[in-house]
Amino acid sequence: MYEGNNPTALNSREWLVNALLTLMKTKSYPKITVKDICQKADLSRQTFYNFFETKDDIILFCIKRCYLEMIHSLKSKSSLSLSDITEELVKAFHKNQDMIHLIISQNLEHLLEYELASVIQIFAEQVSPEIRNRSYKYGTAFLTGAIAHTVIYWFKDTQPISSEQLAELLTNILSGNYYVIKDKI
What we know:
This protein has 185 residues and is mainly α. The chain is built from nine helices and no strands.
């Protein structure tokens, strides 16, 4: 993927992103072709392939950009708490809610989960850099699935809780302060 700073190239990449997101509002994702995206962006297929291999890569790029904004915001804090992380995560989703709604409406939740796994791995390495065994991957899978499905449910809910309530809920669940095991089931 393109990593440079050429303003013309960066504009072209944004036009491709915007073209796909615009097409997704009116057309089924499986029916959108690279040709459609290029026509909408008024760019060549070669330009598309300079930035992306597939249309999924555009969606992954958009999601990754959300998470990178969140990580950048967290890096500015002197010390991090679990609530800082969940608040910033929810803020990132809320800030990009139109895109997230589009992704969910097109049944592309798996792409949200895929990128979320990368972010969780980054945080896990910050918290416990010595963990490199097989169980580490299970922990990442657990957190990814739990957080992704909770956020997806939040977006699909017709009467969702507030973003602040969601961040607090995630913090409580992740810190073990939400579910209480009773003596009898």
